[in-house]
Design a protein that fits this description.
Arc Repressor Mutant, subunit A, alpha/beta, D-Maltodextrin-Binding Protein, domain 2, 336 residues, five-stranded mixed β-sheet, 46% helix, 3 domains
């Protein structure tokens, strides 16, 4: 044959019955039995195969009296056909499960700083509408989760995007933007002051992300611009629970997203200090593999996350306006 056709041409000429014929030929090695399995005549099967070889521009099978043996081109096409048919079967099963109130599985990567109001609201709605859905949430750092996403271990990542992040081969959809704020424990001495600046914190110990993270670098640049020095004796910790415990037991300070602070401040676990950090924002995004379709279950969960973000946006904007207009520096927060 003259050589393979361009990919777009081959894609436009492929037919479902040709894929089914490839699957049958791979199992039987016999055109007559394959045609019978598919409920068609042998001449019709021969025509389908001839059209497929013409579209591919290569010979897919060696014909002999003993049957049909695939060439290495044919073996590749059989693998492709089997894989596509298996994916179609899986989608069909999941669509049926969704229609019956069930679902397939969802594996999502969650960055520590995004475990706030949006995720619980979206997950609660998802499980209420599809109670048999299987959801696995895996928490980790940006680098860990992006690597797992690209390997195919995760369906998507809910994470913050800041300068310097490696985002090749992924698609981003910004859900919302949120500021970072300075927090302390509920009994911190600085809470007694009406105003607080970064200069007032220069001699205190901070709990910060790892020195290589974009947030840490941006915070240190802001800190140096105000105080002329970097934060002293910084403790590096990425565990939200550990950070909460340290803040309550010590006079340490930390930097957290405002939506996370609103959640924990409502339970009296942390307090927000009125320290200006207006230059530090972290958009929260849905991160998915580029050019990969989502299963019905994953697509449904992504829609719930979008809806939750939109539902909470007025509350987020109101909290930001209150802070900018000089609202209570203790900011108790609310989950109502």
């Amino acid at each position: 044959m003259s050589g393979t056709l361009p990919l777009q041409t081959l894609r436009s000429r492929l037919k479902m019955r040709q894929l089914l014929l490839l699957n049958a030929l791979g199992e039987t090695g016999n055109l007559r039995r394959s045609a019978s399995r598919l409920g068609m005549t042998q001449p019709a099967a021969t025509k389908l195969l001839q059209d497929l070889e013409a579209a591919a521009g290569v010979q897919l099978f060696e014909r002999s009296r003993r049957g049909m043996a695939p060439t290495h081109y044919g073996e590749a096409m059989i693998r492709f056909a089997n894989g596509l048919l298996a994916e179609l079967d899986a989608v069909g099963a999941e669509l049926h499960a969704l229609s019956e109130g069930a679902s397939g599985s969802i594996t999502a990567g969650i960055m520590t700083s995004t475990v706030s109001e949006v995720l619980p609201l979206a997950l609660g709605t998802m499980l209420e509408r599809h109670p048999k859905v299987r959801v696995a949430l895996k928490e980790g750092t940006h680098e860990m989760l992006l690597a797992a996403l690209k390997r195919g271990d995760l369906d998507f990542v809910l994470g913050r995007i800041m300068g310097g992040a490696a985002l090749d081969d992924v698609d981003l959809e910004i859900l919302y933007e949120d500021e970072f704020v300075v927090v302390c424990g509920p009994g911190h001495p600085l809470l007694r002051q009406d105003t607080v600046s970064l200069s007032d914190t220069a001699g205190l110990r901070w709990i910060l992300p790892h020195s290589t993270t974009p947030l840490r670098q941006l915070f240190e640049w802001t800190f140096m611009e105000v105080t002329g020095t970097r934060p002293q004796n910084a403790l590096e910790c990425a565990s939200l629970l550990t950070n909460l415990a340290l803040l309550q037991q010590n006079t340490m300070l930390s930097v957290m997203p405002a939506d996370v602070v609103r959640q924990f401040a409502g339970h009296g676990l942390v307090r927000r200090l009125p320290v200006p950090l207006s230059s530090i924002y972290g958009p929260v995004a849905l991160i998915t593999r580029a050019n990969r379709p989502h299963s019905p279950a994953v697509a449904t969960f992504l829609d719930q996350l979008r809806a939750a973000a939109a539902h909470l946006q007025p509350r987020r904007e109101a909290a930001l306006r209150s802070h900018q207009s000089g609202g209570s520096h203790a900011e108790e927060g609310t989950l109502s």
